[in-house]
């Protein structure tokens, strides 16, 4: 089978198994791609969308606003062709030597230091978190302080320590559109899948 045939068949299977999922016409392409990348139908029940998330994310992409990620895995998974078509960029600074040095000096995670390193670039931008709760928590702290106003936070930190809690806090933080889920599940592949769905939607307009 050709790659497109495999994807088309996968989406058909997802459509059949998801049944009456309850997502809107705009939400479903994102949910479907998240399920596709994870093979996990629990996302049918645990995905959450801010009412302005999709339009805000698409507008940011089409305006060439930067996309930041907390992991190089998410960075690798995001579709660069669509990003470049809008003169945008995708960046991850978690392995940057200056960020690493700052994290060591301040006694914080590199993920948190990476957020601070780009704080002055986050107004109107997209930040995709697929691993580190500390990155998401720092983003929310900056939002509450009025220091940043991102167009969208894609929040899918995964794990047992503060992953579910940070996403719960995202759901309760006013002033920022989000795409996230409830619970411990997530991952860089899921965060990248959500961003990719937005990129495809932006390119189709």
From TrEMBL:
Entry annotated with the keyword Isomerase: yes
Keywords assigned: Cobalamin biosynthesis, Isomerase
Domain Cobalamin biosynthesis precorrin-8X methylmutase CobH/CbiC: start-end pairs: 5-200
Pfam families in UniProt: CbiC
Alphabetical list of Gene3D superfamilies matching this protein: Cobalamin biosynthesis CobH/CbiC, precorrin-8X methylmutase
Database matches in SUPFAM superfamilies: Precorrin-8X methylmutase CbiC/CobH
Keyword Isomerase: yes
Pathway assigned to this chain's UniProt record: Cofactor biosynthesis; adenosylcobalamin biosynthesis
PANTHER family: COBALT-PRECORRIN-8 METHYLMUTASE
Family under the similarity heading: Belongs to the CobH/CbiC family.
The protein's name in its UniProt record: Precorrin-8X methylmutase
Organism of provenance: Desulfoluna limicola
